[in-house]
Amino acid sequence: MNTGDLHLLTGAYVLHALPPEEHADFERHLPGCPSCSEEVRELAATTGKLASAVAVVPPPVLKQRVMARVAAERQAPPVVPRQSRRGGTRRGRALSRFALAASVAAAATFGSVALWQYQEAQDARDAARRTERRAADLASVLAAPDAKAVSGGFAKGATGTVVVSRTLDKAAFLASGLPNPPEGKVYQLWFADGGSMRSAGLMDVSGATGAAVMEGPLDGASGIGVTVEPAGGSAQPTSDPLALLTLPA
């Protein structure tokens, strides 16, 4: 490979895309070529900065700014023998821009994949922490020294139990034999405050069982209810309660 061809390999070298023989030829050429050395440093710095930003969502205008800079940035022509300068300079400049664009595209792709993987792992950790908090809250109500429970039957053989701790000012609800709600529906818990119903959150059902600490304080609630509501829950019940249980004194 002649020296003129070596000047065109900076982008492929930075992206580790050269075959072994050309990689070795270019590394022998690099120490004695200031223009190639400078271009390699600039391309490596560009890809390094982009790839290190895996935990930050890029602004929407980033791609437009980068591509505009690629199109507008004047590229210094490589130093080549005079007889090949006319064709070599134009080709070198075009390939230099192509290499920079390829570097940016590759770094953006790898950064997007890494960002997606990071976000997936972060979401899993957040879900695990939420599950741990719910389990700890439920255990604290069930194990409270003043915990009292009352049970009752649902339709179709399901049963429900409400456990109350006055010192914690919390109630927990446990269900057994409760089928999954219809498509697009959820189970919603309610505190019965006199003649009105106050939302106490949603309850997931898995394997015909469910357990949840009811959201909000007991205040003056006299009982609890369970209804089937549209996904996301309702401000007030839109269906008749599946069950109504009186809170233990």
TrEMBL record:
Domain Anti-sigma K factor RskA C-terminal: 102-241
Signal peptide as annotated in the record: none
Keyword annotations of the record: Cell membrane, Membrane, Transcription, Transcription regulation, Transmembrane, Transmembrane helix
Membrane topology designation: Single-pass membrane protein
InterPro entries linked: Anti-sigma-K/W_factor, Anti_sigma_zinc_sf, RskA_C, Znf_put
Domain Putative zinc-finger residues, every copy: 11-36
Compartments in which it is found: Cell membrane; Membrane
Protein's name according to its UniProt entry: Regulator of SigK
